[in-house]
Design brief:
By secondary structure, the chain is α+β, with helices and mostly antiparallel strands. 34% of the residues lie in helices and 23% in strands.
């Protein structure tokens, strides 16, 4: 650091001079400054508030620009053009660390054409600032040639001959390990204020990701690009609900890690929202994430309830990798009512933002992470009603803990960024959250690159508009009381009459059987009345039957495999075998069990079990 004297090892002084001479040979002076440029201190004359806004704008610009880059040469060119006119770096170098030495990987401004000597090697014992950064993991800022001479007497004259007057050497960190050093050099003296050091530190983190992407194999890059592209696809648009999403791979060097989100169009006009995090940050975690995300999407599209989706996903993950687990939060949203049916598998709780900006951490019942304990897949479902202009935030733990925060301090930071601003600007909310988490904070250690977790963010807003109407060709509604002995027979007759022209008689029998099972469970296992609603929609020959049975009982059934002599648990198993889709969802008062059948022509498969 500036002002400290770092004496080189006496025995290696001559060897150091040889290395310095070699580095001097590789470099030629950067272009001369334009007339009238002169000496300056970055940020001089700029009001503090404007400087902070400028820094944040530069960080966002750098993040968007470098997120897709896998070329160090391109990254250095882009970085050189990102900084403000009063804070322009004239030359850059990237060194890699390996086998106890530094190697030159890329440069900008030292030699024409970005040419480097790939055979250049410098031992880490050399009294050169980049070698010290590699040894200690701490940045070195040298604001003048005087500081350089005092701290590194063996090498300062080399840089001074280049016409440079300020230098920043920053560690490039990946997965908690220093993998390289980035040198940013300035022709004019620079004060290196706290804001400037923070800006350079964050840029160094981005260059570290470019370095790792450049090192990663083509197969890993192709995989990560494909996975990230799949998460960019816009989810289904439903009147009454708006969604904003963000994903930032802040660790591991890949473009995607183990975090993911998804939105899925469900039967009967509902929307599923999913967010999850597979253990690890390597390409194996990314591959598992892709398979698990696909499985959850498939189970949801089949129409299973939140608890069944997570139970199936847990068993699926176990078959893939017994050594990894995943957290997940699954929501089934009804845009017409704002009801959210939520199941949680070890994932952080959602956050509710009210129209006035008040933010609450909504505690949701949950089960174990997916794949953690096979055979213990029990995921209770909670019901939350989202009112007009309320926003629900789902995130992975990277949003909370990035930068070394614990869950409490991280929650306070997120709350302060989530609370302000108009509710109509959902994208602006997402941008503020990401900026608050990724920007350097006051009091943070200067020059020390932080290695963070991946971040996935999903915001769901209930819009103040009327929901779209569901068009039904036929509809049957009936209620059976506990004291109405003929109710089941009458319900069977009415449902069969509703299906009088259904293409497959065996599907009619299946529908009657399953409806009887659902109503019978209400009458036998509760003291409540049972209400049945049946809908037929679609074109003749390809119609869809949806049957819903509601009661006011509080206990929710869970899908499980009954033992041979069990007296309960077979109803859901029967639904799983015979229905095309089925589920159980909580209601503000009671619960609804439902199933669906798709009309199939004679001879076609239909009404079978799903996975």
């Amino acid at each position: 650091m500036g002002g400290e004297r770092h004496e080189p090892p006496p025995d290696g002084f001559e060897a150091e001079l040889d290395q310095i001479a070699e580095l001097n040979r590789l470099e030629t002076p950067p272009p001369a400054p334009q007339d009238g440029r002169g000496s300056r201190q970055a940020g001089e004359g700029v009001p503090p508030g404007e400087a902070v806004r400028r820094r944040d704008a530069l960080l966002l610009s750098a993040g968007h620009t470098l997120a897709e880059s896998d070329s160090l040469d391109e990254a250095l060119r882009l970085v050189a053009g990102l900084y403000a006119p009063d804070f322009t770096m004239d030359a850059q170098y990237v060194f890699a660390i390996g086998d106890g030495s530094l190697t030159a990987l890329a440069q900008y401004g030292f030699r024409p054409g970005g040419v480097v000597d790939e055979g250049f090697r410098m031992p880490l014992t050399t009294g050169y600032p980049a070698a010290e950064v590699a040894r200690t993991g701490r940045a070195v800022f040298l604001a003048s040639t005087q500081e350089y001479r005092a701290a590194f007497p063996a090498t300062w004259h080399m840089s001074a001959r280049k016409g440079l007057n300020a230098w920043a050497f920053l560690p490039l960190v990946n997965a908690g390990r220093v993998v390289g050093v980035w040198l940013a050099a300035f022709r004019s003296p620079v004060a290196f204020t706290k804001s400037e050091r923070a800006l350079l530190t964050v840029t160094g983190r981005m260059i570290a990701q470019v370095l790792e992407r450049a090192r990663a194999g083509k197969a890993e890059l192709a995989l990560s690009r494909g996975l990230r592209q799949s998460m960019r696809a816009a989810g289904p648009a439903l009147t009454g609900l708006s969604v904003a999403t963000r994903y930032v791979p802040t660790g591991g060097g890949l473009m995607v890690g183990g975090d993911w989100y998804d939105s899925i169009d469900l039967p009967n006009g509902r929307l599923a929202l999913v967010i999850g995090d597979v253990q690890g940050h390597d390409v194996h975690a990314a591959g598992l994430m892709a398979q698990l995300r696909t499985a959850v999407h498939a189970y949801a599209a089949e129409g299973h309830g939140p608890d069944a989706v997570l139970a199936r996903a847990s068993r699926f993950l176990t078959t893939l990798d017994e050594d990894r687990f995943a957290t997940c939060l699954y929501i089934e949203a009804d845009p017409s009512t704002g009801n959210l049916h939520i199941a949680r598998a070890g994932h952080p709780h959602p956050v509710l933002r009210m129209p006035d900006g008040t933010c609450l951490l909504k505690h949701v019942s949950g089960g174990l992470p997916l794949g953690l304990m096979p055979g213990e897949e029990d995921y209770p479902v909670d019901v939350l009603r989202l009112h007009d202009d309320e926003v629900l935030m789902l995130c992975t733990d990277g949003l909370i803990e990035n930068g070394g925060h614990d869950m409490y301090s991280g929650w306070v930071r997120v709350r302060d960024a989530f609370s302000p601003g108009p509710v109509e600007d959902l994208e602006g909310m997402a941008d503020r959250l990401m900026s608050a988490v990724l920007s350097p904070e006051p009091g943070a250690r200067e020059g020390v690159a932080r290695d963070g977790d991946d971040i996935a963010l999903l915001l769901l807003r209930r819009d103040s508009v009327k929901p779209r109407a569901e068009v039904n060709q036929r509809r049957l509604v009936l209620t059976i009381g506990q004291d109405h002995g003929e109710g089941l027979a009458e319900a069977r007759a009415e449902l069969k009459a509703l299906l009088y022209d259904w293409a497959r008689p065996d599907q009619v029998d299946t529908a009657v059987l399953l409806a009887t099972e659902l109503l019978g469970n209400v009458l036998v296992h509760t003291d409540q009345d049972g209400s049945l609603t049946a809908y037929i929609t679609g074109e003749t020959g390809r119609r869809r039957l949806l049957v819903e049975v509601m009661d006011r009982g509080d206990e929710l059934p869970h899908q499980r495999t009954p033992v041979e002599l069990a007296s309960s648990g077979r109803g859901l198993l029967l639904l799983d075998i015979l229905a095309d889709q089925w589920g159980v969802r909580p209601e503000p008062e009671g619960k609804t069990a439902w199933f669906a059948l798709t009309e199939a022509a004679p001879g076609e498969a239909g009404g079978g079990a799903s996975v």
